[in-house]
Amino acid sequence: MTSLSVTQGKPNGGAQVTVFPFRTRPASGPLLRRNVRGKSSGYGENVIDMQKARNRKQQGEKGLNAMLLNVMAYMAISDNTLDDQEIEAVRHCYKNFASEKVSTSQVQQLAENFHNTSTQLISELREVGPSLSKSDKEKIICAAYHVLLADGKIKAQEQFLLRKIAATLKMSEIHYQFVLEDFVAKTDSA
Question: What's the CATH number for 65-189?
Fold first, then answer.
């Protein structure tokens, strides 16, 4: 390891200042440097961080897709009946949002599970909500609303549950209303 010395000429005499210790090439293993927080990092750190970010994004997408499916199944059974239109709405909407197919039996199984334990989904949303982006939260509300519209009628209980989901996701009432109005406007024009 060598160091770079700089001599600055000043009227009163020069001062010798050591700027940075550095290596001309790595000894054994990656060249380590100290970042702002004092943690060491190496040559491959950016590549590893990018891979971790991609993995987190993929896991996040899978988590979001699972959350979308769970919310839609929950909304499908929220009126205590599971109609064929609601099942098809879940399947269609999930295919559009997640680019994946889901079977009728999977939707029925999820709906049965939520019929028995409805508080499980709200607690999951409470945990995941802070890590979701604004657009992810909007997707969840739109997907749930799409399923509610499937049987042609939205009951007061279903509206309450949709508002509860929005509140759990920390969406303001104004944002919630805007998302629904935007969804209706887009579906009416299509």
Answer: 1.10.3680
